[in-house]
């Protein structure tokens, strides 16, 4: 019986980040044949069990603007989220982008589509939606091997088109500088850390307003915490003379944000999970 290769030898076979992409693709293919346990609760044999799917299927919530919004959210356009950032929604987001559970992307993309359609639209003349995903940093792309928000935006656009609303994804934003981890930071610290982190190319100026050419611009992200990240995205688009009509996210943190807010616990198998 052949002996297993040492860990170093196994890793040497697949370079990074290509290795992570290949492993993620093989894992996604394997999920079609042998689905894993639910990425949120660890039960059942489906990627997301019916109970956890139902938890993301309630009425979307309006999380900004308003008197209850944290400081970073108060200058945002209207923002809708599909669910509160708690289990199971938070667990699914973490499993997807940090643990390589690409098999839950469809569920999260569906939740994002619901938030997109629920976001208030001020311009009655808008005939189509233009989704602008918040871009992943270069470090995140290397670590994960894919742009997690862009992938969800593509799924959401397809679902909203199927529902009868013309929708496209426009990658108008790009990282402008490196940023450090924001975990455990409050609203003020997060805003300072991400200020100027993204930029919009001059070509984005062709979109003069949210309903320009019948297209309504919606910035999309996976999670709204304090609103600092999407606020910087909105700022960058405004500098390019693109007026954002709304923001939509899969989940949103409700209540105080800071070191006291813990990430949802993720119950996943200890083996067979690609690095993310």
Task: Describe it.
The protein has helices at 7-13, 18-33, 50-55, 89-98, 105-118, 138-144, 148-162, 187-194, 228-239, and strands at residues 61-64, 79-84, 128-133, 166-169, 174-175, 198-199, 215-224, 246-252. The chain is of the alpha/beta class. The longest helix has 16 residues, at 18-33. The radius of gyration is 19 Å and the shape is globular. It has one domain. Residues 1-15, 185-192, 257-263 and 265-276 have low confidence and may be disordered. The protein contains 9 helices and 8 strands. The strands form 2 sheets. A 6-stranded mixed β-sheet has the order 1-2-8-7-3-4, sandwiched between helices. Strands 5-6 form a two-stranded antiparallel ribbon. The two termini are 31 Å apart.
């Amino acid at each position: 019986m052949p002996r297993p290769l040492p860990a170093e030898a196994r890793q040497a076979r697949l370079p990074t980040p290509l290795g992570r992409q290949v492993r993620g693709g093989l894992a996604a293919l394997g999920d079609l044949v042998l689905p894993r346990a639910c990425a949120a609760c660890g039960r059942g044999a489906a990627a997301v069990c019916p109970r956890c799917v139902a938890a993301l299927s309630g009425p979307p919530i309006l999380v900004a603007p308003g008197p209850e919004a944290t400081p970073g959210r108060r200058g945002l356009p209207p923002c809708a989220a599909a669910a509160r950032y708690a289990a199971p929604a938070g667990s699914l987001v973490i499993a997807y982008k940090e643990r390589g559970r690409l098999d839950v992307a469809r569920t999260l993309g569906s939740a994002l589509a619901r938030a997109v359609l629920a976001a208030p639209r001020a311009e009655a003349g808008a005939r189509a939606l233009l989704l602008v995903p918040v871009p992943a940093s270069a470090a995140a792309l290397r670590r994960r091997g894919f742009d997690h928000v862009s992938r969800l935006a593509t799924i959401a656009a397809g679902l909203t088109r199927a529902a009868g609303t013309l929708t496209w994804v426009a990658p108008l934003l790009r990282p402008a500088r490196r940023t450090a981890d924001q975990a455990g930071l409050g609203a003020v610290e997060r805003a300072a850390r991400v200020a100027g982190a993204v930029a919009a190319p001059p070509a984005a100026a062709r979109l003069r307003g949210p309903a320009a050419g019948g297209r309504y611009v919606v910035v999309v992200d996976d999670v709204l915490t304090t609103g600092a990240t999407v606020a910087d995205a909105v700022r960058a688009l405004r500098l390019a003379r693109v007026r954002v009509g709304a923001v939509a996210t899969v989940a949103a943190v409700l209540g105080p944000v800071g070191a006291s807010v813990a990430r949802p616990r993720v119950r996943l198998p200890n083996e067979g999970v690609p690095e993310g």
